[in-house]
Amino acid sequence: MSIFGCLRWSTLVASLPSRGRAFAGRSGTSKRLGVMATVAVVIGGGFMTLGVAQASAAGTGGDLTGTVSTCAPSATPAATADTSLDNVFAGQLGPGWIGGDMAYSTQLPNGQEAFAFNDTLIGTAQSDGQVTHLQGFVHNSELVGNLSSLQSNYAGTYTAPQTLIPDTNTTGGYSYLWEVGSSDVENGEQLVFVNEYKVVSAGVDTFSGRSAIAVFTLPPTGLPIFQSLVNDSTVATHMWGNGMTTDGTYNYIYGTNWNHVVNQGWMDVARVPLNHTATVSDWQYWNGTTWVSGEANAVVTGNSNLFSGVTHEQGGTGYEEVNLAGTSSPPSTIAVSYSCSPEGPWSPQVPVYTIPEIAQYSPDEFAYTPNFHPELSATGGLVISYSLNSTVWADLLNNVHQYQPRFVQLDNASYTVTFNANGGTGTMAAETHNVPTALTANAFTRTGYIFTGWNTVAGGTGTSYANGATYPFTASVTLYAQWAVAYTVTFNANGGAAVASLSGPDGSSITLPSDTHAGYTFDGWFTAASGGTEVGGAGSSYTIPAGGITLYAQWTAVPVPTVSAVSPNSGPLTGGTAITITGTGFVTGATVVIGQGNGAGSGAIAATKVVVVSSTKITAVTSGGAKSGTWTLFVITSGGTSAANSGAYFTYH
């Protein structure tokens, strides 16, 4: 049955206490999903446009000074929709989680992802987004698992779903509930920052003054289990957990100091040693000059309406924050700012992405709370998500995809290296990257010259880079090929196998090659075919002289081996007799065979475990399979094959 025709669900929908927020970052007031009149007031004339207008006028984003950060890239990052991640959540059709907002994430110790959500629809939907059954609504939940197989995590059961982090008991006639923020894993537990909101009317919730950390145990198998709440604030205007990042020593936690009188908030920042986040007594707060104890000493570092995520600048040395920007209502542009330190100051906003769904589903659709997912990000880029919502409840039931997170891939500024042949010929494509990368190997040539590397100046007086060296790609540059007159070392094999010549500039080094000549041993390379000066053997380093040179291989003939005795000189047909052979002309690589009446050729039985002990001694082991009788034993080397004589025999019996 369609949910639109069911009185029970119509009654539920009318009373749903939802709070998906129509702004980037935390505020002291939040709107409630699907309540048109209230949302229209909040969007059109409330707190959200206050922060955006101020940023537009000042041009500073989250920074009070508008300082241009030296850690900001020189070019605007490129941002594109990540449809593969979008489809992960579009594919969540139930039964279970089918829509929610915020999508703060962290990676669990087992490698799985945990996405934390606020207001969550529990039910089933079709692939086109049509909700076929709305089982319930909870104030927070998770999706946990591998991206290909996420599981819903909420309390209760599917038929009676409950909020994952339990709502606070009703006090003074009001209902209290928890909104989620940044998430992390420490000491084998999942930590989720939460802030408590009081439901004050059918459409609006306000911050109650209570901020905490929800602690989840992580069983070896199964989903995270809510364990407890740790209060993280004693100041009633502070909300912690808008964003979180680390420098490897401290975790930095971003929060909002909310002023209910003017309905506006400003960003504070705290830090705590790694693995001490849930020990709030270890927190320190930025007081504008240094880090101090005492939450009351925290000072404003920015306008928190525009901060909803902070992380390391990918491919850079500083930090990056994400927010919504623009003068439209609701805002439709994602922007980033940069800082060299986690406490700021922050650079002016840099618009990077126009949210297409606002125009696609206009006039009812709006977006809010972009945040980073560094654990999902590739080198040199960042994954950003943002939440979607509608002022019309029926829109979400007709297409729940309008209440699922969307994702953007942000690629940091790239720089280009252009290659100049500098007198050479050929072509090479320019290289563009945003992280240190090995340069393309040289493809230019120049007749009579050899390539020696790259330089930022054609004449070679700038910065040099070797062929294939790593370039940082922090600035664009033209690299000029550097050339030196090529001198050739020609190798005359002098009866051996042909050897290719080698070239290089005067004074450069080459490695001398080896060569072979049947029946000879290689003596090395010389300046003459006979006599002359030896310059080195195979593998030796040689310095190319000006004008080049011809080097000659010289050889020593390998003598034909002789066998004078074999001991013992008999053994069983099965082989395995260890023998010692004496004679002359034994060299490394010698083989031993025992003839079977046809000399050392066809039918001869090869001995095994042949060891040339010296030029006069070989040890070996006879093989089986021979015919019974006395047979000649032969030693074979590159100098030839030993001749038969009275001492060169072995008897198989």
What do these coordinates show?
With 653 residues, the protein is mainly β. The protein folds into four domains: 15-411, Tachylectin-2, Chain A (5 Propeller), CATH 2.115.10; 415-443 and 453-473, no CATH class; 487-557, Immunoglobulin-like; 562-652, Immunoglobulin-like. The chain is 8% helix and 45% strand. It has six helices and 52 strands. Residues 1-27 and 29-66 have low confidence and may be disordered.
Structural class: mainly beta
**What is the CATH topology assignment of the largest domain?**
Tachylectin-2, Chain A
| Average pLDDT | 85
Number of DSSP E strands? 52
Rg, Cα atoms, Å: 39 Å
Text of the CATH class of the largest domain:
Mainly Beta
Distinct helical segment count: 6
- Give the termini distance in whole angstroms: 97 Å
Could you say how many structural domains there are in total?
4
Which CATH-level-2 architecture of the largest domain? 5 Propeller
The percent range for strand residues is 35-45%
Major β-sheet profile: 6 strands, antiparallel
> How much helix is in the residues?
under 10%
Q: Are there runs of 5+ residues with pLDDT below 50, and where? A: 1-27, 29-66
Shape type:
elongated
